[in-house]
Every structure is written in structure tokens, then in C-alpha cells.
Q: What sequence folds into this?
């Protein structure tokens, strides 16, 4: 497509670099900004550059934070001996929104993926191992996606953590039938896992709200 | 949703102000930027602010341009007595890409829409009337969307232009069965229009490529 203005062509190209946004959508967004007050473009522009330049990561759990140590890691009421390992900040937000988890987190920043060229060194795995060495941690919970890459990451972490002298207990979040899901639509692997990892009925009753 | 960082919350809010982008997508885009080199965020940020602050509109046709008079309006090989009235720059690009139009344009900047609070004064209608008064224009082509708002705009323009002393001929683009479309799936109004506005067969053969 040819644009009637270099400035327009430039903004469309830059917006279209974002994942899931094509040139057509980028053009629509650019024209939208043109119809809004100049202040909106200024705020958007500044928010992008400030976020990219000034945002910090918590030096303990590597979650995004404005402080050196994030609110979760500095909360004394939480159980710091229980660490849930997740891929990124969205997983932290999802687990926090359940209101059922009282431990702390470790944000890997992704998962090991040979296809996408992500190796262990690209993630905060070394920092997790150091953290286990230096702090008293009783249990590590793996909460990775149930994908091939997630499993690869789980196995790699499991091996590395098991080699440590003070290796903590290691668990993974339960795979099974989603609440509200009908059995006949579940895939075989998930169904098999839900049978193998069955839970005492009285325990499950107490978890219903 | 609660974010672990004010900077993150800020960028998510700003991105989510864009049409068709929710908070979840905005968060995904922000995290994507964080993984890319800082230069990409800088370029995006600058492109937005430069576009918004520096972009000009052609003083003749009101299309987006880097110059006072756009490339189309300053092209002497084009027919400046034939003016196609469109809603916005995307329509100019769409018609240009057909390669079949040799006239010039007038970009209204939207259409009259009582529901969205867009009146004649919000568009470049007065400029179009001035343009007709001051230049020798033989024909005006209405190329608005075939919607209620598009029709409203057409009727308003038709009345205003007809009142002028040197009122040019007024036409609208043909409504009909799209090329490649099957008759049975066409709606009745479109089908009726395509019959009422039928074209001599020999003329239509010449238009096939």
C-alpha cells in the first residue's frame, strides 16, 4: 500500500510491528489518533517510552515492579518458603485473582522453546537456583502452561533443582477437568490425568464455595 | 485488574483507549515491547507523536499529506474538473489502487451522523462548496459508504451543491452485485438497484479485463 504521507507511512509501519496488528488495523488506529485531542497521542507516546525505559523487575521474583522488591515479595504475611514458578506477569495476575494462594512467585520470563530460540540462559533460571540456595524454601510449585514447551521447562527445572544440596519439594499445579466442563468433551489425556490424580471427596467438598 | 507497577498500569490504560483493543491485548502488547530492543519502543513513541503533531492536510482536497498540496492535487495529468467525494484517506487509497480513476478527490473527514454527534460543520463540506465556487468543476462523484449515514451525507451535499449558481453534475458510484458474487446470496435492495441501473452489455464487455 502506498501512503500519501511519510509520517503516516512511518506510524503505520511502527504500529504494525506489534504482534497481531496488521497494516490495515494500524492505519485505522493512526486515523483514530488524528481525530482525538493531541493530548491523547502525547500520553500514549510518553507511556510507551516511560514504561520501556523506567520499568524495573523485582530483584527477588523478577516480576515487573516500580520498586527494587515488589509488593508481594515484601509482604510479611505471605509464606516465603512456598514459591510458585510462572512464565510471566500475566500468570501472577491470574493466580493472585483467585485469592487462594498465599506464597510468593518466581517469574521465569518465558519458557524454554528450541523452536523460538529461547534457552535456559534467556530465562531467570539461574536466579531461581540461587534463590533456592540462599533462602529457606520448602516447596516449589511449577505453574507452567500445559504445552510441550511448558513440559520441557518443567523437566529442565526439575533436574536442576534436584541436583541442589538443599533441594525443596517440587509439585505442579493439577491438570484435570475444568470446573463447569462436561466429561464427554474433555480430551483423553486430561481425563486420564484427572483420574490418576483424583482427590479425596471430603477434601473436594471443602473446596466448593 | 491490578497491576504490579504504575508504569505498567499507565501503558495498559493508554493502549486500551485505542478502538478495538481491550486491557488484555494492551497488556500483551506492553509485555511484547518489553522483550524487544528499547529502540523499537522509541521509534513507536516518536512515530505517534510526530504523526499527530506534524501531519498536514492538503489544503485543496484535505487528504493527509506532508505538503500543503498533496501529490494527487498537484498532478497535472489528472482531471481536476472531476472530483470524487470520500469519507477518509482509506477510501482514497482504495480507489487509487484500482488504477481506474483519473480525477481528484475531496476528503470529508467522516460522514454526517446524528447518533455519533457528527454534523456538517465537523466535516470539510464548507470547503467543498468553496472549491466548487472557485474552480471549474464539471462533475462531483459521491463515493460514500452505502449506509444510512452515508445516504444522509449524500442528500445533504446534493441539496447544498444544487443551490450553487455553477452547480456541477452530481453522480454516485454504482451499487450492485459484486464481481464474483452469486445472485442468490445478494440482498434484495442491492439486486433491485443492479437491475434498475443496468449497463449496456457491450459497455460491460469492454470493462472486463
A:
Amino acid at each position: 500500500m502506498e501512503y500519501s504521507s511519510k509520517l503516516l507511512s512511518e506510524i503505520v509501519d511502527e504500529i504494525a510491528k506489534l504482534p497481531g496488528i496488521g497494516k490495515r488495523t494500524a492505519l485505522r488506529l493512526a486515523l483514530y489518533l488524528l481525530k482525538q485531542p493531541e493530548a491523547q497521542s502525547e500520553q500514549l507516546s510518553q507511556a510507551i517510552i516511560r514504561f520501556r525505559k523506567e520499568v524495573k523487575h523485582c530483584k527477588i521474583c523478577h516480576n515487573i515492579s516500580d520498586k527494587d522488591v515488589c509488593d508481594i515479595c515484601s509482604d510479611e504475611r505471605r509464606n516465603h518458603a512456598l514459591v510458585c514458578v510462572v512464565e510471566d506477569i500475566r500468570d501472577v495476575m491470574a493466580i493472585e485473582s483467585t485469592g487462594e494462594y498465599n506464597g510468593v512467585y518466581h517469574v521465569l520470563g518465558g519458557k524454554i522453546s528450541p523452536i523460538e530460540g529461547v534457552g535456559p540462559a534467556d530465562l531467570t533460571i539461574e536466579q531461581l537456583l540461587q534463590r533456592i540456595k540462599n533462602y529457606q524454601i520448602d516447596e516449589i510449585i511449577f505453574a507452567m502452561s500445559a504445552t510441550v514447551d511448558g513440559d520441557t521447562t518443567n523437566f529442565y527445572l526439575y533436574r536442576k533443582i534436584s541436583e541442589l544440596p538443599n533441594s525443596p519439594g517440587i509439585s505442579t499445579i493439577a491438570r484435570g477437568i475444568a470446573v463447569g466442563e462436561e466429561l464427554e468433551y474433555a480430551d483423553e489425556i486430561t481425563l486420564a490425568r484427572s483420574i490418576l490424580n483424583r482427590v479425596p471427596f471430603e477434601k473436594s467438598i471443602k473446596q466448593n464455595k
In short: Chain B has a mean pLDDT of 91. Helices of chain B lie at 6-16, 23-35, 38-54, 89-96, 125-134, 148-162, 188-196, 201-207.
